[in-house]
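thread: overnight batch results

M.L. [08:02]
morning all. the overnight job finished for the chain we discussed friday. pasting input first so we're all looking at the same thing
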Amino acid sequence: MRDGASERGAGLTSFRRFTWWTVPGTTVFLLVVFFGEWILDTDVPAWARIPAAAALVVDTVASAVLLGGWLTLSAAADGSRPVWPPRTWLFAAIAATVVLAVLPLARRDYGLWAVAPAVTVAICATYLGPRRRRSLIVGAVLLAPLPGAAVSLAAGDGKLAYAALFPAGLVCWAWSCGRQRRTCSATAGPATPRSTTGSPTVAPGCG
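M.L. [08:03]
and the structure it wrote out:
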């Protein structure tokens, strides 16, 4: 049971604001750090850097919108209806993710190509129920080794194990961060309003 006064005293109000800023902000920061250096690398040809830069802008904005929307909707939802992502931003994130995966993979950058897909999968999983969420994560982990392994085999560069296993581990890491986001969102949800009788109203699922 929560009320505004007790939350302010416990610091939850400040924590809520902190969560609303840092959850999308951390994701955007990671995308910019991982891809920014690659885009600025003069050894990468312009035909790869220019579309990657455009895709990075789209992906960072779409990821921030999706995470911010999920935090708002999941905190406001009463459990009576599912929380769905905005389709326009979801499709934008998926399209940008494809670009950010294909271009580094074409240059056999096995440590980078799976970053954007892993982040997008983790964001999508936060919107799903437990069963679909597990199916999505398991499916992503099983499929993640295939593109890198195929490129490594075709190139014969001797990096098969790294190309196959690192992307799968990256998906697991991204989802572990996603689970932390869910915990932060549950804690940072809006204060439960008081009832007209003066007693705090119990939030759904907390009774």
